[in-house]
Design brief:
557 residues, alpha/beta, FAD/NAD(P)-binding domain, Glutaredoxin, eight-stranded mixed sheet, globular
Length: 557
Amino acid sequence: MSLNAPVLVVGAGPVGMTMALCLARRGIACTLVEMRPADALPDVKCNHISARSMELFRALGVSADLRAGGLPDDYPHAVSYRTSTLGQEIARIHIPGRSTRLTDHSGPDGHWPTPEPPHRINQRYIEPILAAHVAQQGLITTLYRHQVLDFEQTDDGVNVRIQNLETPDAPPLSVQAAYLVGCDGGRSAVRKAIGAKLVGDEVVQRVQSTCIRAPDLMARLQAPAAWAMFTVNPRRSGNIYAIDGKEVWLIHNYLRDHELDFDAVDRDWAIRTILGVGDDFEYEHMSREDWIGRRLVSDKLRAGRVFLAGDAAHLWVPYAGYGMNAGLADAANLAWHLSAQIEGWAAPEALDAYERERHPITEQVSRFAMDHAHAMGQRRREIPLNLEDDTPEGQAAREAFGQNLYDLNVQQYCCAGLNFGYYYDQSPVMVYDGEKAPDYSMGSFTASTVPGCRAPHFWLGEGQSVYDALGPAYTLLCLRSDQGDAVEALQAAAEQSGMPLRVLDVSGVKDLPTEYQHPLLMVRADAHTVWRGQCLNEETATALVARLCGRADLTPA
């Protein structure tokens, strides 16, 4: 048996499903291949959807369902630092829960310039929501309990052999795809098949993770509940994430530098020490995993018609929640570029943009995460011995160490820089004008319209973001109403090349961000600026379109 698929995606986790949804939005069919059964209980690894990812899910029509999922309405999404889960709170990063997320602007991320603030929700809830949207798409075929055996590239496609794991003796299914994308995780078979290698730091930290059911824990809390509750005391450091806000919790036990053997650390003792409970406290093990935090990035993201995205392309310690979220950005970016190829208006050379745009970002984000892991490791080595003492000195230690932890960690849990600061400065399908993109850190950024940067958010009207009005490929923002000749020239050039173009007149928008200084601005569907200028004529419009389609290296004046 054989079938054809414009794009075949290996792996139906959050990254693979998002990739498929992005393609379907452009009217492009996709086949997902997943080894797990459809009803498999998802991992509890990811606990956070970033603002940029929520912006993406808003465009896909999924954000409202995601925001309605996860923790109870009134459960705070705050981050708390305490002497134990049931002990004294020494610092708290205020992040409101779902019921006040869109109205409470008092927290450190309450002022963010976005239509979609972040959302704390566990992967156990994320995957079923995405799967329901995938199932509604007639353009997406999902082959659960199937495995890619091998594939072979040709000049015009990829021939793939797929085995049904429920009938292993049956002949493999043959699929002819135009492109293949490996979203198959850290042990990616696709990455190995194309000869790509993970490069970087093999060990940054070791962690025992245990998902437990403990119905009595909430009632015993001395300090208010929080989405993440970190334990810092001289005996053991760890943290606990609320999965359902009621009785299911994910506990991370951070092993010390000399603790190289996972089995040498008593798991039950560590859990009870982190929680601050005695031997009489009852809890149920639901799942467990011992894992090593790494900083590894694939040395290449592409081989011909085969691509890597998500954990297949990069692995790093999960600080700032940018494991899955970086993968979602990979998926959106690659789906955009593949759509341009399949729709026929972009040159084959334009596909080079995926690696040239995303690879530098994975390097940057991985180093931010690794540096923060090292900083937190140092803090765990500096925990005051008198932190739990009921003395004036103990109180002073708690106040000082709590402030230290707040100052360090507010930048990772309210990481504006990682959300909005990253930029593409090496893309072959963007037109740079000599101005350097602003630097950013994990926690801060400077909004900019420099090509490659995220076009600053603004509201067009009640509840409508400029991002809501962007076209599927490129959108020309007209900031002045006297740009008729430029618009006509660009529309003619785009039509001749077959390049989708939407024109959006924003000259009447009130309170336009001050960063918008050019009368014309071209924005891609992923909200990145690709060109800005004062005017266009027939010649420069033609050159601009050629560049955006990957057909020329000319930079229009």
